[in-house]
Amino acid sequence: MINVFGSKTNHKEISNVTESLQSQWLGMGPKVSEFEKRYQERLGLKNFLMVDSGSNALFMAVTLLNLPKESEVILPSFTWVSCAQAVLMAGHKPIFCDVDPFTMNVTAEHVKAQITDKTGAVMVVHYAGLPVDMDEIMALGYPVIEDAAHAVDSHYKGVYCGGISDVGIYSFDAVKNIAVGEGGGITMQNERSAHRAKLLRYSGIGKSGFEASTQGKSRWWEYNISEPFIKMNPSDIAGGIALGQLDNLDENQARRKYIWDVYQDAFKDLKDFANPLDAPKECKHSYFTYSIRLMNGQRDALAKYLFDNGIYTTLRYHPLHLNPLYKQMNKKLKFSEMLNEDCLSIPLHPNLSDEDVEKVVHYVKMFVKG
Fold first, then answer.
1. Mean pLDDT of the chain
2. Per-residue pLDDT averaged across 75-99, rounded?
3. Which of 48, 61, 205, 360 has the most other CB atoms within 10 Å of its CB?
């Protein structure tokens, strides 16, 4: 079965993990620190902390905004569940907005439609790695969280995604562009928030006893707890894998772009079919997923046909406002609901062979052309 998502590792990740195992240092340590330094430098970020997942990074991001209790946070319905869960867990209310049906990103117009006197912040998602138009979002005047889970190599007008708004997060889960199994990261503009984030990551303590012992503290086992928070420390196993993935990122990204371009050319003239948009010239894409639209009511049939021929596909994402948990099922979000019916994510990742790509192209075209 050709999988819709995947990662690619080599001897670098294996060597780094082996070093950690042989040193017996498995928790957060030197490899996490090295990855943080190199990732921050690559993206030109003011600061950067690695955490244990992108989902937890989102929860930390909402927490760092210090919003009044039960504030409303506007975010796209067409996104992963962790975006909304982070808002709820931080004591606020997610308010879902629509997205553009072709970029699959939020726009200022869609955000404005949901603004009330309780609005405290806006969360945007750079869908598939295509940058959101951040100028118009920032002009709304609210604190903004960037979910750059798909966008580790994307930039908007020369600035890397995640580093544009008040707070930005990244995901390094098992199928992301930097895949460590489970991992994430966070960056912010405010250095006081960065200091707070480092404390929060370790349950409000910040420093371990071992770290405190190296800094002249006589009772290094004693600590001051700044505020209640869950532990989000990444392991050095994840840090080592992340370093290998960072070494290989340019090569893996080139492979993703090659596959993207093959699809763009192969599918450009198909009837009732929409390719995803390329990034405008002043921006850069990360090519996380390739989401097509089949606008003749046959999307489900296409997914089944591809599955029967050894190609696994999925939809990223089922619109969140359609889930009863959030009590917004009566809300009409035209384009998110349209995408729920005609959008499909097909295989795109650096571990696909040329034969895999040819097979995907062949069967998609066979079905669409009838």
1. 96
2. 98
3. 61
Write down the H helix ranges in the chain. 11-23, 30-43, 54-64, 81-89, 108-112, 134-138, 191-201, 209-213, 236-247, 249-266, 299-308, 334-342, 354-369
Taking residues 183-201, report their average pLDDT: 97
- The structural domains of the chain, with segments of one domain joined by +, span 11-247, 250-369
Q: For 75, what's the count of Cα atoms within 13 Å in the CB-facing half-sphere?
A: 33
Contact between 193 and 65 under an 8 Å Cβ cutoff? The reply is: no
Residue 300 DSSP label: H
CATH dotted code for 11-247: 3.40.640.10
End-to-end CA distance of the chain: 23
In this predicted structure, the answer to whether residue 217 has a pLDDT above a threshold of 80 is no
Residues paired with residue 109 on neighbouring β-strands, in sequence order: none
Q: Is the pTM of this model over 0.85?
A: yes
CA dist 361 and 329 (Å) reads 36
CA distance 182 to 239: 10
Q: What is the pLDDT of residue 218?
A: 79
* Distance of alpha carbon 20 from alpha carbon 40, whole angstroms: 22
Cα angle for residues 185, 186, 188 (degrees, 5° grid): 160
Nearest Cα to 282, choosing from 131, 144, 167?
131
Question: Nearest 5°: phi and psi at 74?
Answer: -85, 130
Domains 11-247 and 250-369 share a fold: no
Separation of alpha carbons 23 and 322, rounded Å: 49
Q: What is the mean pLDDT of residues 274-285?
A: 98
Residues 168, 262: Cα–Cα separation, whole Å: 31
Active-site positions read 176
Per-residue model confidence (pLDDT) at position 207? 73
> Residue 289 is inside which H or E element, if any?
none
Q: How far apart are CA 184 and CA 340, in angstroms?
A: 27
Q: Is pLDDT at 272 greater than 90 in this prediction?
A: yes
Q: Which two tokens stand for residue 346?
A: 């097909």
How big is the chain by its Cα radius of gyration, in Å? Answer: 21
